[in-house]
Amino acid sequence: FFFSHQEVVSEEESNGVNLMEFSDEILLHILSYVPCTDLVLNVRRTCRKLATLCLDKSLTHTVLLQKDYKVNKDKVKQLMRDIGKEIYQLNMAGCYWLPSSTIDHVTRCKNLVKLNLSGCHVTSLRLSKMLSTLQHLRSLAIDVNPGFDASQLSSECKATLSRVSELKQTLYTPSYGVVPCCTSLEKLLLYFEILDRSREGFMLSGQLMVGESNVPHYQNLRIFYARLAPGYVNQEVVRLYLAVLSDRTPENLHAFLISAPGSFAETGATKNLLDSMARNVRLDALQLPKAWINGSGLLQHLKFNNPFYFSFSRCTLSGGHLIQRVINGGKDLKSLTSLNLSGCVHCLAPESLFRKAEDDIDSSILESLVVSCCNLRHLNLSAAHHHSSESIGNHLCQLLSRLKHLLSLALPVCSITDVGASVEKPPTTPNLVPQTFGRKVRIGIQTYPRNLGDQANQKIESSVFWALMGSLRFLETLEIIGSSFSSAMPRNEPAIRNSLPPCVRAQSVGDSEVAAISQLTYLQSLTLAQLPNILTGSGLVNIGLQCQHLRTLSLANLGMMGKVVYMSALMDMLKHCKCLRDLRLEQPYFCAGAQFFQALSHCSSLQRLCIVSRSGTLQSDAVMSFMASCLEVIMCHMFMGESLTVCKNLQQSIVRSFQAERPALNVVIFPLLHEDLTEVIRDVPMRHLDEITLFKSRVAEEPPNLWW
User: Fold this and answer.
1) Is 438 exposed, middle or buried (0-12, 13-18, 19+ CB in 10 A)?
2) Are 624 and 658 in contact (CB under 8 A)?
3) Which one, of 229, 138, 122, 232, lies nearest residue 187 by Cα?
4) Which residues contact residue 425 at a Cβ distance below 8 angstroms, ignoring those fewer than 6 apart?
5) What value, to the nearest 5°, has the Cα angle with vertex 449 and ends 542 and 481?
6) What is the pLDDT of residue 561?
7) What is the DSSP annotation of 492-534?
8) Contact (Cβ atoms closer than 8 angstroms) between residue 90 and residue 116
9) pLDDT computed for residue 15 by the predictor
10) What whole-number percentage of the chain has pLDDT above 90?
11) Distance between alpha carbon 19 and the CA centroid of its chain, in Å?
12) Taken in order 373, 333, 325, 222, is the CA torsion positive or negative?
C-alpha cells in the first residue's frame, strides 16, 4: 500500500474513480488491511485526508507486528514515537530478528493493556524496566530463556505483574518465570520447550534453581493450559507447576488442558488434582495426557458445563465411553465447537478390548456424535484407521457431511475411500509400488483419464468423498493424512530412514480424490500426506485453479516413493497460487531444480519454503535465482541428500546476498541424514519450527482463540 498523491490522481484519470471521495467508513475499512507500520510511516504522508484517517483510533488501538517481516528496529522506534500513546494492544510475537534493544521503545506505550513478546529476545533487566512503566497492563506473553533471574525484577515491575490476569509463558529453561509475581492470574498458558541436554551434551535437571521456589498463585485461575515438547525435563518442570493446583483447586477453573507427547505418567499428586476437579469444578474445555485417561473412570466423574473444546488425542477411549461419559448419551453438546480425536483408534467403536485397529467403525457412534455436536467447527479424526462398513448411507463421509458449520477437518486417508473401491488384500495392480526406499522397480502405469474434467465426472456421482467436499463449502482447512504416515523429521531425534506402508484401504486413494478438493472455494490450508495412488497429480492443478484463497500447502509422500510422479502437475498448480504464503514438500528423491523454482516464482506472495527429501537434490543457481525473484521469501529450509559442503555454501550465499534487505531472513540448508541435524533444528525460530518445518496435524490442536 505504497502510493503518492500523484499516483492517486493518475489512478483517478485512468479509471474515473476518486479514492478520496469514498466515505471515511469505507476508507477505514480498506486501511485496516494495511500493516500499521505502512500506515503510520508511509500512507499517512500521501495527503491530508489519509494523514488523519491513518491515525484513527480504530487503526492504532491494536498494532500487529507478528508477521510483518519487513519491520526493523528503526521502524519500530519511529512507530512507537509517533503513536505509542495510542496503542492499547501490541503483538510482536515471533519477531526473532529484532535486537533485544528494540523492546526498550515499548516503554512509550504507556496505555498498553495487552502485550505479546513471545519469540522476542528479552532479558530480565529489560523486562523489568519495560514493565515498570506499563501500569495498565493486564495481558502478557514472554519467553523465559537461560539466564533469566526473577530477583532482577524491580518492585515497580512486580506491581505491574500483580495486576496481570492473563499470562503466556514459553520456557526454554527450568523456571517459574514471572508466574509467582502474577497474583491475579485468571488465564495461564505454559509452553515447555526445555531440551534434555545442553549444547555441550550435559544432561539437564528439571529441578528449579535456588530462589525459584516461590509459590504460584492460582486462586483466581479460570484457564490452565500446558503444552510440552518431547523430553523428561519438561515433564519434571510441569509437575512443579501442577503441585500447587493439587493442593487447592481453584473454584472458578473451567478449562484444564495439558498436551503431552509420548508417555506422561500419572502420579499421586496429579490423581489428587483430578479427584479434586471432579468434586469441585464444572469444565468447559478438557485435554489430558493419555495415561491419565486410559483405564480410569475419570471421565465418568468429571462434570461439564457448556463445553466448547475436548481433546482425547492418542487415548484408548472407546466410542461407547465417548458417547456415555462425554456426550451424555447424545445430549447437551451443541456448545462444542472443537473436538480432537487424533490417534484415538477406538473412538468410533463400541468397545476396544477385543477390537483390532483396522476393524470397521460403528456408524451409529459417529451418527450420535454428529447429531449431538451439530455445531462443530473443528474436527480431527486423523492418525487412526476409520474404515466404513458396506452399509448404505452410513459411510463416514456421508455422516460428516451433516456438519455444515465445519471450518477445519482432519481425516485419515483410509477413511475417505468408497467401500466398493477399497482393497481387502494386498493389491496386485501394476500401478502400485512398495513404499520403500530400496531399488527402483520399473512398472507399468494403468490407463487413467488425462482430462481433468472427465476424471472428475467419473467420480462425481459415486464418490462419497466428492459429495463430502461438495457439502462443506465453507471449509478453510483440510488435512488428509495416511494413518501410518510419519515425517522424516521428528523433533529431537535423527531423521527417520524408512516409513511404514500405507493402510490397505488407502491404496485406491489418488488423483480423483485430490480433484474433489477443488470444490472448496474458500480453502486456505491444505495438507496431503501418504496418498499411494497418485499417478500424475492432475487434481493438484484443479486445486490451484479453483482454490484461489489457498495460503498454506503441505504435500508429503504422494504416489510411489522412488519417483516424484506429480512434479509436472505441481509446477502447473503453483503457477496459479498467487496467494500461497507457506509451502512444505516432503518427498524422497525430490529434484529442486530450475524448472521447479521457475514455477514456484509465480507464487508472488510466498514467504516460507520448506523441502524435506531423502536423497533429494537441488541446484544452487536455481535457488539463488528464485530468492532474487521472490522478494517476500524470508524462510528457506531445505533438508536434502546433498553434501554438507554444498549445503553450507548455498546457505552462506543466500544469507550474504539477501539478509540486509530482508531482516527476518532465516535460512537452513542441511543434509537430512546428518548426525548433527538435531543441533541445527534447535536454532530454528520457534515460529517457523512449529508452524511449518515440523510436520504435524494442526486441526483442533488447541482451543479456538486461546490467545491472539
Assistant:
1) exposed
2) no
3) 138
4) 504
5) 55
6) 85
7) SSPPP---PPPPGGGTT-BHHHHHHGGG-TT--EEEEE--TB-
8) yes
9) 60
10) 73
11) 38
12) positive
> E-strand spans in 181-232?
187-192, 223-228
pLDDT digits (tens, 9 = 90+) for 88-114: 999 999 999 999 999 999 999 999 999
pLDDT of 555 reads 98
Using one digit for the tens of pLDDT, what is the confidence trace for 364-376? Answer: 999 999 999 999 9
Q: pLDDT under 70 in the chain at which residues?
A: 1-16, 208-214, 295-296, 329-332, 352, 420-462, 492, 496-498
Grid-cell match 529450509, residue found: 637
3-state helix, strand, coil in the chain (%, to 5): 35, 15, 50
Q: What's the angle, vertex CA 641, arms to CA 640 and CA 645, rounded to 5?
A: 95
**pLDDT reported for residue 442:** 39
Angle ∠(572,576,582) on CA atoms, nearest 5: 100
Using DSSP's 3-state secondary structure scheme, residue 29 falls into helix
Q: Decide: 303 and 281 in contact? Cβ < 8 Å.
A: yes
- Count CB-CB contacts under 10 A for residue 198: 10
Instruction: Give the pLDDT confidence score for residue 358 in this predicted structure.
Output: 82
Alpha carbon distance 340, 308 (integer Å): 12
Give the number of residues written for the chain: 708
Which cell is 430 given? 501394476
User: 658-690 b/e with 16+ CB inside 10 Å = b?
Assistant: beeebbbbbbbbbbbbbeebbebbeebbbbbbb
**Please, what is the average pLDDT of the chain?**
89
Helix 620-629 × helix 644-658 angle, to 10°? 20
Asked whether the beta carbons of 666 and 634 are under 8 A apart, the reply is yes
First to last CA, the chain: 25
pLDDT of residue 295: 65
Please state, as a whole number, how many other Cβ atoms lie within 10 Å of the Cβ of residue 585: 21
Residues 503-556: tens digit of each pLDDT: 999 999 999 999 999 999 999 999 999 999 999 999 999 999 999 999 999 999
* Integer Cα distance of 457 and 461 in angstroms: 8
SS3 at position 410: strand
C-alpha cell at 703: 482451543
With 0-12 CB in 10 A as exposed, 13-18 as middle and 19+ as buried, what is 353? exposed
Q: How many Å is the maximal CA-CA distance in the chain?
A: 76
Q: Where are the beta strands (DSSP E) in 271-426?
A: 282-287, 303-311, 338-340, 378-380, 408-412
Q: pTM of the full predicted structure?
A: 0.92
- Do 588 and 567 contact (CB within 8 A), yes or no? no
Would you state the pLDDT for residue 211?
47
What is the per-residue pLDDT for 395? 95
Give dist(CA 177, CA 679) in Å, integer.
Answer: 25
Which residue from 594, 652, 589 is spatially nearest to 617, judged by alpha carbons? 589
Amino acid at 215: V
Task: Locate 228 and state its grid cell.
Answer: 510440552
